[in-house]
């Protein structure tokens, strides 16, 4: 049997899966590592968002990536997207900031979050422009 997997390998894989499950379930680990989604954090100048709300640079709001936002848009009307108004917590470098979903980011990849300047400034220096974040809905 050329391709047989040894008992030791199976035991090792099962053991790793168990450890991973325990680590994932631990609230302490979760808090340290941040949210369960990840992507790039960027910022933009909010205006009239896809959810139909008028925002500005001081608003604590985000635009979710189109591939994450669009599946929750019913009948092609983004104003009625069920993620509109949803709370979000973003983690970066030991810091976190809370905001609200009010817009859609057409150029973002799944997991990316485009933030208002006020939100971005809370967790990073604007000169950084693009930062690796993790996040969760809250
Ligand atoms: C900015 O938008 C927020 C809502 O996100 C609003 O409460 C606030 O009044 C606006 N500020 C200005 C200066 O328009």
UniProtKB/TrEMBL annotation:
CDD domains: DPBB_RlpA_EXP_N-like. It holds the Pfam family DPBB_1. InterPro entries: Expansin_CellWall (IPR051477), RlpA-like_DPBB (IPR009009), RlpA-like_sf (IPR036908). Keywords: Signal. Residues 1-25 form the signal peptide. Residues 88-134 form the RlpA-like protein double-psi beta-barrel domain. Coiled coil: none annotated. This is 11588_t:CDS:1. It comes from Ambispora leptoticha.
């Amino acid at each position: 049997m050329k391709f047989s997997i040894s008992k030791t390998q199976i035991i090792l894989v099962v053991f790793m899966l168990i450890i991973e499950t325990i680590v994932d379930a631990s609230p302490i680990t979760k808090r340290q590592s941040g949210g369960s989604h990840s992507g790039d954090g960027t910022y933009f100048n909010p205006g009239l968002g896809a959810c139909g709300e008028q925002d500005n640079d001081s608003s604590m709001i985000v635009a979710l990536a189109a591939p994450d936002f669009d599946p929750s848009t019913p009948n092609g009307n983004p104003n009625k997207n069920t993620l509109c108004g949803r709370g979000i917590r973003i983690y970066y470098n030991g810091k976190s900031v809370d905001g609200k979903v009010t817009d859609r980011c057409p150029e973002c990849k799944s997991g990316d979050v485009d933030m208002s300047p006020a939100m971005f400034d809370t967790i990073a220096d604007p000169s950084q422009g693009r930062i690796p974040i993790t996040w969760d809905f809250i």
